[in-house]
Design a protein that fits this description.
330 residues, mainly alpha, two-stranded antiparallel sheet, 2 strands
């Protein structure tokens, strides 16, 4: 992706961040605490959140190196939440590799996860008192919201009456607030104005909601070669996604009842279940409603850019990033 105004490319931010992460995540004693931490941190992923922290600090005229600890804190917290989520979901794989609790055991996953949360807070100690306090306030608020989002998600598994506003709130808390916080923390380190800190948070949060809605869509209709996960995984697991909730709302009675039945069973042949569900998603208009919602939240994010006190070149950088994110196939 070409960048203007002397900013680095996404790939360069990723590279700089991974170099810093590798320096940080050395295994020390006790090894059974720190090896699982190093393992999950090195499993990769897109590193989207820390890259956003670094990029945002440069958007507001600061050297990205100053925000490396804030970016690392966000990445460690994100991976801590994955370790504990995987235990809750009894998930065997993460990014195609064994999950921490499978490779070691559940107790190791809990304790190493706890240590990661503490390490995430420790990283703020490198900033001066005022900045430390501001960063911790944003971080603590966000961390609690992520836990609330995870609880909503768990609650939804046993409910058949989840509404679209409830679902949007869940993905806002579980996923999008961390994207917003990653950008806000970059702005805080760069000492941007309070107004710009809030605006960049709203940009990130709305983009995060669009990103998660697109994930829902790609789970059902992505290209298996590029998606990186099993297409139809949410359908197999009976997850009440944006597609599912819209399909229930928009379908005729017969299709609605069939969909509810499909999402109450675990058949030996999941392929047929996936195909029938996808057909109902298309015919009910749920696919179109999901694509429309993705566009709406992306547009909300882009509208926020107009309020930022930065150059037009830098607004273009942020818009390009958003467009790249929304045109992904994975």
């Amino acid at each position: 992706m070409p960048y203007f105004c002397d900013m680095l490319s996404i790939e360069t931010y990723q590279q700089k961040f991974v170099e810093y992460l590798e320096e940080y995540s050395e295994v020390r004693d006790p090894k059974n605490l720190y090896e699982p931490i190093q393992y999950i941190l090195k499993l990769g992923g897109k590193r989207m959140r820390p890259v956003l922290t670094l990029m945002t600090s440069e958007i507001f005229n600061s050297d990205f190196k100053k925000s490396l600890n804030a970016a690392l804190s966000i990445e460690i917290f994100h991976n801590f939440s994955l370790v504990h989520d995987d235990i809750m979901d009894d998930a065997p794989l993460r990014r195609g590799q064994e999950t921490v609790h499978e490779k070691w055991d559940v107790n190791t996953g809990i304790l190493s996860g706890d240590a990661m949360l503490i390490m995430a807070y420790q990283l703020f100690e490198s900033y001066d008192d005022n900045m430390f306090r501001t960063l911790v306030e944003v971080f603590s608020k966000t961390a609690l919201e992520v836990c609330e989002g995870q609880q909503y998600d768990v609650d939804f598994e046993t409910r058949n009456d989840v509404t679209i506003p409830e679902y949007l709130k869940m993905i806002e808390y579980k996923t999008a607030v961390l994207v917003g916080a990653a950008m806000k923390m970059g702005a805080i380190v760069a000492e941007a104005s309070l107004e710009d800190q809030e605006s960049i948070y709203q940009f990130g949060k709305n983009l995060g909601i669009a990103f998660q809605l697109q994930d829902d869509y790609l789970d059902g209709f992505g290209d298996p070669k590029t998606f990186g996960k099993q297409v139809g995984g949410d359908i197999i697991e009976n997850k009440k996604t944006f597609l599912y909730i819209n399909a229930l709302k928009l379908s005729n009675t017969e299709d609605s009842e069939q969909l509810q039945h499909l999402f109450s069973i675990n058949p030996n042949n999941p392929e047929e279940k996936i195909e029938i569900a996808k057909q109902i998603f298309i015919e009910s208009g749920a696919v179109d409603a999901t694509k429309e919602a993705i566009k709406d939240y992306t547009k909300k994010a882009f509208n926020v850019l107009e309020t930022l006190h930065i150059s037009e070149d830098k607004k273009t950088v942020l818009k390009q990033f958003g467009e790249q994110l929304m045109n992904r196939k994975i």
